[in-house]
Design brief:
Length: 180
């Protein structure tokens, strides 16, 4: 059991070298307005209220996502904010019993190393066998897809292909406005 009394915590860790300087990379990551860019369109991610939101320790960010097609409210707290090296968002309300996402940034010769560590746990209301099945069949594969999407976005965006992504985002935003 962890410090919050949650059993069965799991960790997802990713590391990527982005071919851009830290002073270009960190501002992109710290802006809640960019969360929709780095989230697969199928999740219909929306920050509420719409940005601008100042990133700082103690900041609470509300947003909605769609999981399995169902709308879900999510509230995060920025529990740690140490620009330009690190920030941590923790779920206060949402689908997980625990969600703690640590974002770390380090300058390197090739640009910036971006490391993500997500410690998460599914709701305790699931019986252990059901929790393992849901995690293996749905949760982990979907988290991997989200982080794969993010990795591709970062590689393209910071390699100078950001105009293609912006055009794609405008299309996604227009489609979301029509749905609303």
């Amino acid at each position: 059991m962890n410090e919050r009394g949650v059993d069965n915590c799991r960790t997802l860790a990713r590391r990527q070298v982005i071919p851009a300087e830290l002073d270009r990379v960190f501002p992109f990551f710290q802006s809640p307005a960019n969360l929709a860019l780095i989230t697969p369109p199928s999740l219909a991610f929306r920050v509420i209220p719409p940005p601008p939101i100042a990133m700082k320790q103690g900041q609470v960010i509300d947003y909605t996502i769609r999981l399995a097609g169902l709308p879900m409210a999510w509230r995060s707290l920025i529990s740690t904010y140490e620009p330009p090296f690190c920030f941590v968002d923790e779920q206060l309300k949402g689908p997980y019993a625990r969600w703690r996402h640590t974002h770390m940034f380090e300058a390197c010769a090739e640009g910036t190393i971006v490391s993500d560590e997500v410690v998460y746990a599914l709701p305790a209301s699931l019986p252990p066998l059901a929790e393992r099945v849901v995690h293996a069949a749905y949760v982990r594969p979907n988290l991997e897809k989200i982080f794969d999407y993010r990795a591709k976005f970062f590689a393209d965006f910071f390699a100078g292909q950001d105009m293609q992504w912006r055009a794609g985002l405008a299309t996604v935003q227009a489609a979301r406005e029509i749905e609303s």
